[in-house]
Prior knowledge:
The chain is mostly helical. The protein has helices at 9-16, 20-29, 47-61, 66-74, 78-117, 123-126.
Amino acid sequence: MLSVETFTIGQLAHDAGVNIETVRYYERRGLLREPPRSISGYRQYSAIDLRRLQFIARAKQLGFTLAEIASLVGDQDSSETTESVLIMARSKVQELDQHRKELDNTRSRLERLIDICEDPKNEDCAALRVTT
């Protein structure tokens, strides 16, 4: 008889690099299936659960929301999953590019403010001071 490796919730969390409460939360959100339990009531996770949890953790690190991840892990067909990942990753890159532009613009405005305020007599900077 072939033995299938199982993980406790603590082992699963450790191997995936997440907190135990995170595993429970992902179960409640439907990102992870509710695992079968041993006779003594302990959750029994499989290697598939570990890979799924590792995928979720990597996707979170890349900036995907849990809702986006749910749509990715919900796909059963691997070609559909690959296409979904590509579409979402391209969208994230566009969001990052837009955010970078906004940050560059804010930085530029702050640098101009610094230039103006370096002269303590400059009226433009004096107008920004809060008086009580």
